[in-house]
Specification:
This protein has twelve helices and no strands.
């Protein structure tokens, strides 16, 4: 009896400790997030009083300054184009590749798996210079072949090129995650589709992709966050035009700190955060399934 009571008290103490840690972790995220959102509605004079005070009213002029005057709207559209295009390219390449690597046996399978696994250990920030040199050399080669004027840029300041590079750098992680999930799917569904006369492509689109939807949504969310917040590659390959939100936010910070207009600065931060928060809320359930659930259905 005493041992049982002791075990119960130990379990309660452990649960209390776990909930305390989770609460502190949640507060460490929610407090700065909430403070930034409230600060976006404050007027300039309110920042010199109590920093924790609620805004006197909803001063929407900050968002106008950030979105229009500071061109955050243009940067927002550029980020949407680059991120959306990168996700499309990534999924078009990664899903078939993951399907082949997880469901078929062929001679070079081990080598390909080793290459993609090695890519997991490469931090893209460390290879920005080689990527930049490849882009420059590629541009020179294309100009020589097609006799394009020297002053005209093809690969630099190109949102398409940046999207392709984003997709390429995310391939190892995406293929690793998707192939691991696809391995857990039962082969009975594929066999049934083949008996019905489905080709490999039709089996992939009508059977595998619907079953792997939670994992695909997980991949989309993780890569969306990575592409949306990426700074180094965009800074290197978009020096003049087509700047994305992270680059625009840095410019806004420099301008608004000089002008001491912190309201517009925090409005810019909120503009950057809103898409990621909305996307996470929409796919939260599927995200949890993709990270924890297996593919076998009863």
């Amino acid at each position: 009896m005493k041992k049982t009571l002791k075990n119960i008290s130990t379990d309660k103490l452990f649960k209390f400790f776990v909930y305390l840690c989770l609460t502190l972790f949640a507060l460490s995220i929610l407090v700065p997030l909430g403070w930034s959102i409230l600060a976006a509605f404050k007027q300039k004079s309110e920042f010199y009083g109590d920093p924790w005070a609620l805004p006197a009213g909803f001063y929407l002029e900050n968002f106008k300054k950030a979105f229009i005057d500071a061109q955050m709207g243009t940067y927002f559209i550029n980020s949407l184009i680059v991120t959306g295009l990168a996700l499309v390219i990534l999924l078009v390449v990664a899903i078939p590749a993951s399907y082949v690597l997880s469901r078929f046996e062929f001679k070079s399978k081990k080598i390909l798996n080793m290459i993609f696994s090695a890519g997991l250990f490469i931090n893209v920030n460390y290879i920005v210079v080689p990527i930049f040199l490849l882009v420059i050399d590629g541009e020179k080669l294309v100009k020589e072949i097609f006799a394009i004027p020297i002053g005209m840029t093809l690969f630099l300041d190109s949102r398409i090129v940046v999207a392709i590079i984003y997709a390429a750098t995310a391939l190892p992680f995406t293929i690793y995650l998707l192939s691991s999930y696809l391995k857990s799917l039962p082969k009975a569904y594929e066999e049934a589709a083949q008996i019905d006369g489905c080709s490999y492509l039709k089996t992939l689109t009508h059977v595998i992709i619907p079953m792997a939807k939670p994992s695909i949504i997980t991949v989309i969310l993780f890569n969306f966050l990575a592409f949306w917040n990426e700074y180094i590659i965009a800074l290197t390959l978009l020096p003049n035009g087509g700047k994305t939100l992270p680059l625009g936010l840095i410019n806004l910070m420099q301008v608004q700190k000089t002008a001491t207009d912190y309201g517009a600065l925090y409005a810019g931060l909120v503009i950057v955060m809103i898409p990621t928060i909305v996307l996470y809320i929409l796919v939260q359930k599927k995200l949890t399934e993709g990270m924890t659930a297996g593919g076998i259905k009863e």
